[in-house]
Design goal:
The protein is mainly β. It has one domain: YVTN repeat-like/Quinoprotein amine dehydrogenase (Methylamine Dehydrogenase, Chain H, 7 Propeller), CATH 2.130.10. The protein is built from no helices and 22 strands. It has a five-stranded mixed sheet with strand order 11-12-13-1-14, with no helix packed on it.
């Protein structure tokens, strides 16, 4: 028996909570792919702590009185800033990242579990575990899973290279495609014989719809990323002291980084190792990684 990684194309779901974009007319149009940033990544901890490697440190939320734990992190396109999002929908901006709004103080049907920035960095999407999507800045709303019967909770979100769509990944390995996330003519389902818990999803630079997804034990799968030379590859041979919590992709040859809850960082496809937080005494577990 094999597990199907289903790519389900949705147009607009007309139910569930919707936070419309503040400036939908300014969203990206036409074909555009994200550039390759200099190698680097940031780790975010549940208490708001941030650990930067190959990137500048621009502050954290560790000293703030958070109403809820941090659950996700996204980097700005220039790599000089980042956003943190908490499970209650609060958003915290650092460095060149600008604040465009949040769901903080608004009653949610389910906790926020992820954040993805628009290609130009002038907006972002938040997603909740029930598949709700909330758009801010120049991020456009392309629908959500809120109100649908999904088999497992959503664990992450990634945008397409042109910003005109996004994927929502569930813990069961279903990658729901909204907007232009599903390439024309792509098969409705791709086989992924992995009966494991999925934890993260990331866009692969130099592709329009190439994505990498990761499981808790370090396996990564890639789709629609042939132009970047990507093929499925596994890190299972690496001895991990803690489960993987996220994946980031950002080198010219499809290099990827995996982050574990204890701060460990594992590199794939030649991505450079720039450091980790594994040797530190963390006050809270790592919950995400962004390049």
């Amino acid at each position: 028996m094999v597990r199907l990684l289903r790519f389900v194309s949705l147009v607009v779901v007309a139910f569930g909570l919707v936070a419309p974009s503040a400036a939908p007319a300014s969203a990206a149009s036409g074909l555009r792919v994200l550039p390759i940033r200099p190698p680097g990544y940031v780790l975010a901890a549940a208490d708001g702590g941030v650990f930067a490697f190959g990137r500048g440190f621009h502050g954290s939320a560790a000293g703030l009185h958070l109403g809820a734990p941090i659950t996700g992190v996204a980097s700005t396109p220039d790599g000089d800033g980042y956003w943190l999002v908490a499970s209650d929908g609060g958003v915290f901006a650092f460095g060149s990242a600008r604040f465009f709004g949040s769901m903080g103080g608004i009653a949610l049907n389910a906790p926020i579990v992820g954040i993805a920035a628009t290609p130009g960095g002038a907006g972002y999407w938040l997603t909740a575990s029930d598949g709700g999507v909330f758009a801010f800045g120049d991020a456009r709303y392309f629908g959500s899973l809120s109100g649908l019967h999904i088999l497992a909770p959503v664990v992450g979100i990634a945008t397409t290279g042109d910003g005109n769509g996004y994927w929502l990944l569930t813990a069961g390995g279903e990658a729901f495609a909204l907007g232009d996330a599903l390439a024309p003519g792509a098969p409705p389902a791709l086989q992924a014989p992995l009966l494991r818990q999925y934890v993260g999803i990331a866009l692969i630079p130099r592709t329009t719809r190439g994505i990498a997804i990761a499981t808790f034990d370090g396996t990564t799968l890639t789709y629609d990323a042939d132009t970047a030379g990507c093929r499925p590859i596994s890190a299972i041979g690496v001895t991990m002291n803690a489960p993987v919590v996220g994946v980031a992709s950002g080198t010219a040859d499809c290099g990827q980084w995996l982050a574990a809850s204890d701060g460990g960082v594992f590199t794939l496809r030649g991505a450079p190792f720039l450091g980790s937080a594994a040797t530190l005494k963390l006050a809270a577990p790592i919950v995400g990684i962004a390049n």
